[in-house]
Amino acid sequence: MAKREAPEINAGSMADIAFLLLIFFLVTTTMDKDQAFMRSIPKKTLNPLPPPEIFMRDICDIKANNNNQLLFRGELLANPDDISEKIVEFYRFNQKSNDLTSNFPLYTRLTKSEIQVQLDKLDAEIERMESTPDQSEEILKYNLDARAEWQLRLDGLKMYGKSSLPEVASSAHVRVDVQKKTSYELFAKIHTEIQEAIRELKNEEAKKMWNTSFDILSKKADSEPGDREVKSQLDLLKLLYNVRIIEVTPK
Amino acid sequence: MSKFRKDDGGKNAPAINTSSLPDIVFMLLFFFMVATTSKEVDPTVVVNSPTGSYTTDLTPFKQRSEVDFLYLGRPLNPARAEQFAGGFALSLDNVVIPNPDGLYSVNQVRQWKMDKFTSKPATMSQSIEAVITCIKADEKAPTGMIFDIRKELQEIDAISVAYAVKDNGNI
User: B16 to chain A nearest CA, in Å?
Assistant: First the structure.
């Protein structure tokens, strides 16, 4: 029997099939990105502790009322675009040296020996807890976290290259205080301004120290998560400008 | 006018070779498969997001299925708007007992989030604190409702939220 040639397969409808798939994907997918402001809600506590004493100088409050009018630290603000510059001023005013008469948060300046003292203290505490058996896991974890935090400060100071590390008062924060009928548009605008201020502060510091920008650093951290140098640079920026945000639930 | 005279001697025009057409279309197909993300739901409310800048992009580092989206806006069906305080309703997906219009009020958020969390496959072993809830709200929506949603989420420890905006480029 003679060997028969395999008949050629008609591929004319291949294009139709591919078009069909293409149109399916065009319809069911979307191209817009999900851009959002990441925030976290405070955890629910059953027995809230009494609030700590807070100085007026540590609060950077941004109020918005039902008619979408703005009040920034007690001053009426016509243009919401000014918020970011004011937040930058709030964090920068006392960074070089503390002015006790000003209405801005104070900075503590930690030297290397002061950080080392704290580290030694925590090390001794952790060692003592590990040698005694019946200790609560939670307290040990708390101490380990605290130790890691002080270690970050020590590494940061080394990188910062100065004799001390300026750190803003722990109660300094930006407070977003809106009313129930404030529009989401203004709310989003306030958050934009806060993000802009954070970026501006970090950008300038990154430019001064490494002649780069915060945007470039965070892009690098996204693309190469293993890069230790970039990570420590971002950690230092976070230590220098730790902007805490509190969102007040409207009554 | 010999310029315009047909000079094919009565022959038909040669057939165009279309054998590379599938290749081209497949290329387009793969481009769209890579460059787009699938839609989770068609929201039942109209959401016209406000613009904002310097945002975090939720797409590259999170699969969409790891972020729960909820929509806050005016109902697509205006006749139903009166039943909601202030005319704003929520659009939630995959609710256990669905509502015919797909419109919900704030007090169903907790149940919805809990259901979503428990129905996730075991391979996504994130704690509920880490699962982001992304609120897509209309620019005219009252902020009071956002805080009502936050309160519901706080009750079940779903403490990561994101406020979605349209990014107008980081200018």
Answer: 13
Long-range contacts of A140-146 (CB under 8 A, 24+ apart): A146/A122
Cα-based angle B50, B53, B59 (whole degrees, multiple of 5): 90
Contact B143, A67 (CB under 8 A): no
What is the total count of domains within chain A? 2
* Minimal C-alpha gap between A98 and chain B (Å): 30
Residue A14 lies in a domain: no
Determine, yes or no, domain membership for A29.
Answer: no
- How many interface pairs between A and B have CB atoms less than 8 angstroms apart? 170
Helices A228-240, A137-160: crossing angle, 10 deg rounding:
100
pLDDT, tens digit, 9 for 90 and up, residues B9-34 = 556 788 888 888 888 988 988 988 88
For residue A36, list chain B residues with Cβ-Cβ distance below 8 A: 55-56, 58, 134, 162-165
Contact A195 B53 (CB under 8 A): yes
Last residue of a domain, one of A144, A168, A192: A168
Residues in chain A closer than 8 A to B72 (CB atoms): 184
Residue A130 lies in a domain: yes
In tens, the pLDDT along A128-179 reads 877 777 767 778 888 888 888 888 888 888 888 788 888 888 888 899 999 9
- Chain B residues lying within 8 Å of A181, measured CB to CB: 142-144
Q: For chain B, which residues score pLDDT lower than 70?
A: 1-11, 39-40, 59-65, 96, 123-125, 169-171
Q: Which of A168, A192, A208 is the last residue of a domain?
A: A168
